[in-house]
Amino acid sequence: MITFVIFIAILITTLGITYWAAKRTSTASEFYAADSQLTAPQNGFALAGDWCSAAAFLGFTGLTALFGMDGAFYALGPLTAFCTVLFLIAEPLRNTGKYTLGDVIRTRMQTRTSLLAAIAGTIVVNFAYLMPQMAGAGVLVRLLTGVPYEWAVIFVGSAMIVYVAFGGMLATTWVQIVKAVLMLAAGAIILMLVLAMVQFNPLTLFADAEKRYGAQYLLPGNYLKNPFDQISLGLGYVLGLAGLPHVMTRFYTVPDAATARRSVVWVMFLAGAFFFATTLFGLAAANFVGQDAIRAADRGGNLTLPLLAQFLGGGKGSFGGDLMLGFVAAVAVATILAVVSGLTLSTSSAIAHDFYTNWLNHGKVEGGKEVRIARIATIVIGVLSILLGILAQGVNVAVLVILAICVAASANFPVLVLSLFWRRFNTGGVVGGMTVGLVSSVVLAMIGPAMQGANAIWPLVNPTIVSMPLGFLGAIIGTLISGRDAANESRFEAFSLQLHTGVKTK
Question: What's the pTM?
């Protein structure tokens, strides 16, 4: 009962935000980018809410509890990933784009074919990211309410549709801010309770885990047994985050490039602190709850943090235990609702703005009609994400999220970087990079251990170490074999000026 009350309170709050935002969302700029009026702290908290997904809140803790330091590698990677975003991507995106990745590619190439390739990359990556979020949501809502997993996924998908279709980016942003505050508060409470259990000496957690599970538990290789998997995970993190479309869209919600940079600094501190704490949470859960109990609750380890919170509150059946379980589980659901809302908005933007307005109608669509198309797209995307979430039942959400980041690193990142910084890069390169990157990363992921388990044909959990170079190779070969584009190269000086300064020339 306690868990249900907390969950309903958070849901009512976020729906109230959506109602407030809906009255302030009518134009395309307001729907896609909150009219570019967010401050750096607001966008930083929203980025933390966007990035700290079910993988961070649930999956990373579960991986650490079940596999030791390999889970910690997953958790700490985003710290370096945001450095790439800060120094390479944030300012150029804000200066050259409008709402989407497709805007950047269209500004540089000015061809419909390149825009279509960018749309494909956005949609594939976003759906790959949506699947684990919906899976995590189903597990948590089932825990909160007792309803079957499938109905839990349907409920979350329906709420997501309401947030995005009615409130657009403004509602999505404030839902993410509220969620980030709740998540950080929950993390701080759990951290204090965990440290109190070990007399505020975190090294005790490591010593106890080693004593219980052996020295290998604190060494790499328990989950990522192949050293190339460890390298691949690092590459996917460091370069894949910069290719995630729903992260890119956040840089269009601020008024200028300087604010975009400051937003990244905010999220590095906010998200970094939480990710660091998940390692301690995982160790504490392994020590206090036990791996057998964790696997019994969910074989992927996705309920590790709620189970730890219940233990810290006094155990199952106690008021404190139920209160902590309800609070953490409800915050986790809010976490997922915020992330899936951002993903859905990014995908609907690609369909309505990039495909319908710019590709089909050459940019000649009235703003109100474009918003209506985006809202219809939101409903379709919501239904598809529900189906994907049902299919993903039982898989650790952290693993699925990293595979989505692998696709972003292999397809979107090469095309984006070469578009921004290589004069000769052309439409053939965009098509080649997107095609090779998408196909190689998706195929290798589908035949690898993450999806096939012991029956895997491909040995690596994360194929970034192979698929990302293939994406770059496809982009380079596509550029060279398609011949020089004199008009495109002649526009590069003006594009580069806009890239670095924000100044547009005719």
Answer: 0.87
